[in-house]
Known about the structure:
The chain has helices at about 1-20, 30-60. The protein is mostly helical. It has one domain. It is found in: Membrane.
Amino acid sequence: MLNCYRFYAAFEFSKRRFSAKYGSDLPVCTLLASRSTRGIAYWLSCYPLDVVKSRVQLSATPPTGKSI
């Protein structure tokens, strides 16, 4: 759920920044840039957790509570 918050927050933040510059009628390129920001924020927030999950799944022994 936290990733969804960052996903929408990044989009709204960049869209509002563009709205301050261009007004309420945003060009298509600014919406594409806002959506790109949204995707980058999503992957930056969930990719590190996915790497940890994959390493735990691929380890030869099950986790014992110690650091990896």
